[in-house]
Every structure is written in structure tokens, then in C-alpha cells.
Amino acid sequence: MKVGVLAVQGAFAEMEAYWRAEGADVFEIRQLADLGRPVDLLALPGGESTVQGKLLKDLGLFDPIKKLIDGGLPVFATCAGLILLAEKIDDPGSRDGTRPEQWFGALPVAVRRNAYGRQLGSFTTRGDFDGKHDFPMTFIRAPAITDLLSPDIEVLSTFDGAPTAVRWRNITAFTWHPELNATA
Question: How much is the pTM?
């Protein structure tokens, strides 16, 4: 499997290590030319979603990546990657709940950024994930999924009653960081 990891900002090194440990052929997506390589899965890492979105636009990557996602390329996203994919932003003080133009809007969920607190509020817990019990879940300035905007979304995990990992069509997205847990 060939995995292209968005490597413009954030935890892309950890995402690359995760997929290499799974036996994937991994390459970084940093510029438009990188999208010319064959790819089976796009990985969107955690980081700062606003910075990632701006860099995607500035580097000319946004529209070609959106086209790949909308065309059905499988996507694996964590934290900021989930925010970039969200259809709606549910942050206090946001304009009207609409997503900024530099976010893909490809996943029918509403999210609230930094819902579990700031960096010092980061934590690891254990829960059920996709049929696995007692699974480690690391939350770092994690977003919360506040609403599922399609009945076709499959919830893969929850924390305190809220969905924390979802699958919809070609997208699997996490509010937490499976790439940081050795057993993930």
C-alpha cells in the first residue's frame, strides 16, 4: 500500500512511522509535484488546522487534494486532519458555523476545536474502538465531534458519550491520535 502523508505542518513524522510499522510504502506530500505519485491512501495528521489549511492553499495543494478526496481516495485523518475534513465548525464565536474556505468540508460532521482543553489538558484514556476493548486513546488539544450530519456515518469509538472516531464512505477520522499508541 502506498500512503501519502500530508507533511506541511504538524505530526507528520509520527503518522509516517505509524504507516511504515503497518508495512506501507510511505511518502510525504509537501508540494504539488508529490501528488503525481501513485497513492492508495491519504493520511492527514494532527497539528494546527488553520496553519495546515493556509499552507494547503498557499502551496497549491488544496484543490488537487480536495479532488482526490471527493473522487473517493481513502483518507485516514487524526485531530487537525479531522477538522480539515469537517463540514461544519461548531466553535463558540465562529462566524456562522460554516467552515473556513481552506478546509475540505468532505466529512458530514460538526466539530468543535480544542474541545478537550489546551495542550496541558492533553490525556490518554482507554476505551472501545472498532470492536477492540481497552484500546489506548491519546487526546492532544483534541476536537470534539458535536454532530453527525449524515445517518450513514459509522461511529467507531466514543468518549463521554461523544463520537471520537468515525467512518464515512472513503474517510476514517479520529479526534484522538492512534498513531501515538504502539498497540494501535
Answer: 0.92
